[in-house]
Amino acid sequence: MKNIFILFFFISFIGNAQVLGEIRSQYSKAVESPEVTEKLYGELAKISTSTKPVLHAYKGAILTLKAKFSKNKRDKKDFFKEGVSLLESAVELDSLNTEIRYIRLSVQENSPKFLGYHKNIEADKDFILKNYGTLSSKTLKILVKDFVLNSNNFDETEKLGLN
Fold this sequence. Notes:
The protein has helices at about 1-30, 35-45, 55-70, 75-95, 100-110, 120-130, 140-150, 155-160. The chain is mainly α. It has one domain.
């Protein structure tokens, strides 16, 4: 029985890692592509409350992108509200996760001003700058660095400090 539990845990861990790797590689592409957004949404639709908070953050971010690409005003509002709720929930569950802070910052930075979802930009920016060096995933480091280099919220000194 113990061996079955260990096998299940290992398979679950590998499955989550593969899903997370795919989501990371496609997330920045989803910003400009309704097709990639829908593909990622399909992957993330099966995410439950028992999964990793970082997957909730990505699911929330993808919902805000669905809002961006939606033609229906009500859908735009509903997708955005649900996305922000999931994203904030992920931050509450794991506030020390740099990847979650990067995801939230990317959503806030790209949200229209009239939606008022910008209150944590400075906190997330500071958190990313302080914790960038502790990221263990080379892929994640590249993603975060690319984001920072293309962001208007980081000045040149801050961008150079990531090297």
